[in-house]
From TrEMBL:
InterPro entries found in the cross-reference section: MFS_dom, MFS_STP/MST-like_plant, MFS_sugar_transport-like, MFS_trans_sf, STP/PLT_plant, Sugar/inositol_transpt, Sugar_transporter_CS
Gene3D superfamilies found in the cross-reference section: MFS general substrate transporter like domains
Gene source species: Zostera marina
Family, as annotated: Belongs to the major facilitator superfamily. Sugar transporter (TC 2.A.1.1) family.
Principal subcellular localization: membrane
GO terms under cellular component: membrane
Residues of the Major facilitator superfamily (MFS) profile domain: 21-471
Topology versus the membrane: Multi-pass membrane protein
Pfam family, one: Sugar_tr
Keyword Transmembrane set for record: yes
Localisation per UniProt entry: Membrane
Name of this protein: Sugar transport protein 13
Amino acid sequence: MGEEDGRREFEAKITPVVIVSCIMAASGGLMFGYDVGISGGVTSMDDFLKKFFPVVYHRKNSNDLDSNYCKYDNQSLQLFTSSLYLAGLIATFFASYTTRKLGRRPTMMFAGGFFLIGVALNAAAQDLAMLIVGRILLGCGVGFANQAVPLFLSEIAPTRIRGALNILFQLNVTIGILFANLVNYGTNKIQGGWGWRLSLGLAGIPALMLTIGSLLITETPNSLIERGRLEEGKAVLRRIRGTNNVDPEYEEILEASVKAKEVQHPFRNLLKRRNRPPLVIAILLQIFQQFTGINAIMFYAPVLFNTLGFKNDASLYSAVITGGINVMATIVSIYSVDKVGRRALLLEAGVQMFLAQIVIAIILGVKVSDHSSDLGTSYAILVVVMVCTFVSAFAWSWGPLGWLIPSETFPLETRSAGQSVTVCVNLLFTFVIAQAFLSMLCHLKFGIFIFFSAWVFVMSVFVLFFLPETKNIPIEEMSYRVWYKHWFWKRFINDEEEQQQLEEQDKLPKM
């Protein structure tokens, strides 16, 4: 066990079992990403709209519109997208129980099962009710996966690469979005009116990957020890760390699990003063993440480009480009998050996203009116470039770090409950944005990008003053290595035992 700048680092190799386990678990991100990407493309397809949303189909192909910005303003159409996130919001509370009592692996199995059933219903849908029920089951899968996967990744990864491995989840989200955009581009050309069924049905591939993967991976030692399976937990710890010298880390997890067992009501315990820093930050990160406007763009990219005057193929093609940029930028985050740190990525991206949205708002304000949306080639290219600039900044910052930071900052006794709150708040505001975006686009017009850019400014100020750095800090040492030393949050950490633990750690000889 080494120590640098007062921070301990446990002995650990990057073992094949860790890499394989993380890749398998991160496939849960594929499910989430595919669905985020697929809905926007499907809702821009004429065959899909004709069958389920004939009012929108007529409006899209009519010239009798009050405004170009209002082509897709329909509550039922928005419900198709947003119902998944409302269901996920509710499901995450059940997922918190299974994650804590049964483990991370079973929760991921449940996620895959819900998703497979939902995919079958969506692909075979004959009416809107069947379509919505399928989306609700997909939402249950998303709720369970988003609860278990980030926890699994944070707990199984060695400290020094925890950020990079955790971002595998977000990388798979972006790959899922790109895959969905490519599928939509291809299925839109299928004759016979059934291309949308193939788009929705192919979501079964990542769901199957997660289900099979959850059968093959190992449970985390933190979860096993927390549930009293001490010897098994220690054996797993040896296997995933590739060394027999795991006693220091084992003792720390064991100590955390003893504290966890003393907590009978983890959700009530979350409200205690000493748990306020990670709780407040987790909640605000999720709200800020959604109010960047990213999901408005990723859900409705083809619809948005179509609204701006791009032809149907061009709008889907533009969505593919933004999806590809999303993947590449997330890879940048994997390489940089454990080197430059969380704060630096968030702050740089804040500036980049703010400027990109302001430029988009200016272009749309000048070139797109209620009855004219001819951007011209040069301005159309510039809009796509600015959207890609925005997406790339989000993909190496607020996208992955919005999930990473909460998953690594809660103590073990409230980690599952904290992750539930994180997922719940994320899905609640995802639902709000998904349900409201097309109506907001209709009423705010180009001002919607000014609205989101104002939020980007606010959240960047928050990061600058209130978000501590968490890179390279062992997961069970966050409270007294991060919160106790922060200028603002230290006032909430007044537990004598934690202060004593900090003092004892500071007395350890540096190596």
